[in-house]
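Write out the 3D structure for:
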Amino acid sequence: MFLEDVRVHHRSGQWCPGVRTDDGLVAYDLRILPPWQVPGRPTTDRCFVVGDAGIQLTRPGTFAGALEGGWYVDVVELEEAGPKRLVVHDLYVDVIVLPSSRRYEVLDLDELAGALEDGRIDAATAARALRNAQRFIDGHLRDLDQEAPDSWPDFPPAAIRPLTELPPFAPG
């Protein structure tokens, strides 16, 4: 797998070190800002962007209790801001995949509606966000062919698994 070093702009304002594969997948390390750091836990999260699916996945080190070990999935768009510089745009819809059961929660549809109402996004972008959220759920979390499924169909997505094994990305 070919890896290209990139810098990724996160909504927290940080430019983060990462890589992009020849398949267009992106992985980057996000520094957890001090107010959200948990003593004794990692101070970075690895984020994975599947650009053509419009999703970003993170297994937050700050999750505790029933959420610890779970995943946070953002519906996003990825913008090429310059050579080896990518910007992740959050499209409001989120999914939390709980660690201990085959359960997930869809969040922030009200934020999407508010962004549409006040003009922060247009109708076409909102429609893409909703479609990408549903495609992600249908393709990775729901298996309508199983009567009583005991595992996720493809979660975390097989495509990102090689990126989870990479060492930390060097800040640059």
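Helices lie at 109-117, 123-141, 161-164.
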